[in-house]
């Protein structure tokens, strides 16, 4: 009985810890739980169409799966990209009456309420976008229509802030769009001000920009911008995502930063180069389930499970406060028999268990095991040649030199300078980021310089963790 009671207590403590509101750490580098300053590891998933496309049963399945996989944040959009204000949700409800943000439809928002509440019950923080960016003027129009000016943006923001004042969430303004001009900046400022007025500044806020950009490029000075978010995008394999993190880390005043949309698992590399975005496009090579059966038109290939791991470790070891995973079928909640936005290889349910998604739990496991909040970028540890691309190596160390983490996208020989760590005797292990297994190494001294990563399989990625004795 004592054992059972103690186990129950641990479960309750764990659940309470994950329903606390978030804040920014004292050193302004990462997120924390507000009540006790415990570091919060952002492991997100882009479920942009969650509120719009899924019914309650489907949403519960999605949320439970991601919670079981160790995700901590779910990013979703209230006014969604796929014609989210004119095409109704799974229950036939539109968000507004007559497309008027001052006249919200209670039935639509009750569905949003349900999903946020259920996510919170599972210990998930919701990263909520009030609207996709195409509902505000930009130089890259989408389904739209443009709905917001300063006045109604503030009113809608206040409505959302008041409605979700007690929810466990982070507000993410923007939605894949740059700030076109000062008038557009004023609209987003007004929406942020409305949210803050509605929720009493209870929740953190950031901005989701267009591809290959960061909120720090044009909103770093905004008083409502608590941390930066960048979109490293889907342009190429071995994208140097660490450059975004390092650029944002150098900005003043200091703010946390993270990759809110990297390359998605199963999305075609640089897909926009091969698409016209017209109705019926690729219908001749799409099967009856609405999934792509012939990949040959996309000559640059598709991102896979290893691709998303490479970008995860490169981001975090460059100083990001976390990482957001994404899958091409999941973001659009592609269902069998439907048309896709970007050609999908599976439906959203099958995509939930793709190898990259399953490996994300081991990203979190490693960085919570070794105090990620203490890490600082430390490329100086690597003294052998370190080019960009598939053989690039990233390194970080604990700020006092008590341990170091080195990530290799591919097995190779390399050299380290261990004099930069806080000892002359060390222990170490190789960590397999595919499955979380560890291979312990014999104790060694500071003279150990040349290292060789495990070579099986020959294209595997590996993490080396070195700890001061």
UniProtKB/TrEMBL annotation:
<protein>
    <submittedName>
        <fullName>Putative collagen-binding domain of a collagenase</fullName>
    </submittedName>
</protein>
<feature type="domain" description="Putative collagen-binding">
    <location>
        <begin position="376"/>
        <end position="467"/>
    </location>
</feature>
<dbReference type="InterPro" id="IPR024749">
    <property type="entry name" value="Collagen-bd_put"/>
</dbReference>
<dbReference type="InterPro" id="IPR025277">
    <property type="entry name" value="Apiosidase-like_cat_dom"/>
</dbReference>
<dbReference type="InterPro" id="IPR017853">
    <property type="entry name" value="GH"/>
</dbReference>
<feature type="domain" description="Apiosidase-like catalytic">
    <location>
        <begin position="25"/>
        <end position="372"/>
    </location>
</feature>
<dbReference type="Pfam" id="PF12904">
    <property type="entry name" value="Collagen_bind_2"/>
</dbReference>
<dbReference type="Pfam" id="PF13204">
    <property type="entry name" value="Apiosidase"/>
</dbReference>
